[in-house]
Every structure is written in C-alpha cells, then in structure tokens.
Design goal:
single chain, alpha/beta, TIM Barrel, five-stranded parallel β-sheet, three-stranded parallel β-sheet
Length: 281
Amino acid sequence: MEERKHQKEKAEKLHQLHTEKELLILPNVWNVLGAKLLVDTGYQAVATASAAIAYSNGYQDGEKIPFSSLLSIIKNMVDAVNVPLTADIESGYADTDEHLCQNMKALIEAGVCGINIEDTCKKTQTLYDIKTQCRRIQLIAKTAKEMQVPLFINARADVLLYQDVFTSKEVQTAELIQRALAYQEAGAHCFFPIALKQKQEIETITRQLKMPVNILALPGIPDIKTLKEIGVARLSLGPGYLKIAIQAMKTLAEKLRQQEGLDSVLGNNITSDYLKTLINH
C-alpha cells in the first residue's frame, strides 16, 4: 500500500513537470545505468524510448521485442530510481482491448507513472480511426483510475507519418488538432505530434490546444529557447540519446582499429568508481 502511495506521488510529480515554466527535456534511456545517470545529473524524471530499448537488445523497433522482456527492463529501471518513470509502450503491444488492459495493469504494477501511446495499428500499419484510439485511451485511463495511480498519458499522433493519406498540409494540421482535442477528452494529458518540425506548425498546435505538447528532437526543429517561447512543454530525444552513445563508441572503435585513440580511453573521466557510485545510489 505504501509503495502504491509513493507511485501516486511520483505520478503527480510527472504531471507537475509538464506544467512548469521550464521546458521539460527528457533524454530517453534504455537501461538502469542510463536512468541512474540522468538522476545523478539532476533530472527529475526518466523516460524510455521504444527504439532504444529494442535496438540495444537486438530487436527492430515496432513491438518486435517481447512485451515480457520490455516489462522486465522497465521494472528494473523503475526499481533503480526514485523519480517518476514514463515508458514508451508504442501502441500497447495489444491486439484487443482486453489485452491492452492486461498490459496496462502489468505496467502500473511495475511502477510506471506515465506512458506514450501511439495511434498506429501495428498489425495493419495504418492509423487507428479517432473513435478507436479514443476508446483505447479511455481504457488506459480507466485502468489507471481503478488502480489509484494518476498515470500521465502522452498521446502520440502519427498523422505526419502517413502523408500520402492527406491531400495537403492544412488537412494534416486540422487532423492533428482534431485528434489532440479528442484524445484530451478521452483522458490524455499531453499531445505528441510525432515528426512535427516547423516552427509555425508547432506554434499553431500549441496555441490551439489547452494541454501540454511534446516535440521530438529531429533535424529542422526550432532551438530549445524558441520551443520554450512558443509554448512547447516537453522535448523528447527518442532514440537520439542512444545514437549519441553509439556514435562515440563507433568513433573510438574506428580509431583503435587504426592503432589510435588510446588516450581517449586512458583519459576518460568516467571512472569505474563513478559507475559503482551510480549503481549504489
């Protein structure tokens, strides 16, 4: 009972972080060490990225990693840190409403305080219609309420990934706004228009919605100061944080193959003692 109370408090903190003046920046991580590193650096919340977890465990993104494996990874991360964790669960790893509820119960039991939920059907690789996605969000919200956890629901809209479905940018933007309003009414707390990059379009969305908006760090988006000025609440890195780590490893590996780069290893200020300290906290 005490554990559920603590989870409730962390979930409330996650809600609060999306309404503060500072832009909430979340470098999405994929394992316990990454989660602990963020907390040690001063982050007040931890977020996962589905692609980062999948790739780092040898799977393609797109719900290819077994849900049981994903759940175990997420639970280990939750147990390792004392801040709210929000999990990227793609479309919920479920083909039916019953299965979605089962998965949500398992995630909440694992201690998550928030989720990202997408409106792409993984089986058909098409957008769920608005009514269907709203029903799914309502089920998630109902499950969380029954478990007495104010789960933060970040509703991802994949409209911009299906450009051939829409006749113009204006129609796409109208569809995004329609989905945002419908998802909010269904119980979502944040809107995540994936692949939205242009300043004017981001500004249009944020001004028309009375809910936090989450933007993904992609080439072409405005800088952090501008995102904050136009009202964006949250900036996610998605798999970008993993790519930074892999780039550093690849660069060093290439140097070492050329009999170079040893100074980078010997002069690294991330010591074994520091890593031990992270794990011990």
